Amino acid sequence: MGATLLCELGLFLLCTLLCTGHAQDAVLTIEPSWSSFFIGEFVTFKCDMNEGEDTDWYYEINKDSREFVPYDTDKDHKLQIISTRDSGEYQCSGSSVSSHHIKNSNTVSITVLADKPRATLTAGTTIIPVGGSVTLTCSVQSSDGWKYEWFRRTQTTSEGKIRDQQNRDIRVSQGGIYSCRGTRGNPVYYTDISDDVTIEITCEFSLVISLSLSLSLDR
Q: 62: part of which helix (H) or strand (E)?
């Protein structure tokens, strides 16, 4: 009985130590949590020691196992991406103010893409009848987190933004020249505007009249 109790107590203590140790591992996260970024965007590194108060630690950011941001009292660090050289493996370290004990976090990989993206606009069809509609789709390849801005103009009117539309897909029933671009992040980052897509409206009634007149003249 005594041996069994000691065994159970030992297992309990071991589990407690393991679980507690795991819960207190330092954690590095990034916001936004995208895996790839473009030059000009911003990313914030957030380092959490999961132990004591935030003010109990000095924080350091390392990149590819080298110091990137020296020890500081701020647990968050905002970085503007300025080149593809910002790609790499990032890790944060915390040094206890009182004991100088060091804790290292997980690593987070960031990839910086060199070329500014251009939105791609596609249409289900470019010719619709009066009263009909068509779905337009705006997309940005090889990345996520996008919202979209839509624009329309005609041969006689200047380009204007389509209000209240941030979706990837929109349905339109007006003819015109459409374009779009992607937006994401804070501050907002914009892709290049897509190529134009022209939507034309056909009048079936006019077509019937034209055919009737043509047949009458042939007679």
A: strand 57-63
- Give percent above pLDDT 90 in the chain: 76
Pick from 127, 123, 133, 135: nearest CA to 169: 135
Per CATH, the number for 25-113 is: 2.60.40.10
* pLDDT value at 3 more than 70: no
- Taking phi over 0 as left and psi of -120 to 50 as alpha, with beta for the rest, 210 belongs to alpha
pTM for this entry:
0.75
- Which residue ranges make up each domain of the chain? 25-113, 120-210
Between strands 197-202 and 176-184, the pairing is: antiparallel
> For residue 10, is pLDDT > 70?
no
CATH superfamily entry for domain 120-210: Immunoglobulins (2.60.40.10)
Backbone angles phi, psi at 38, to 5 degrees: -115, 155
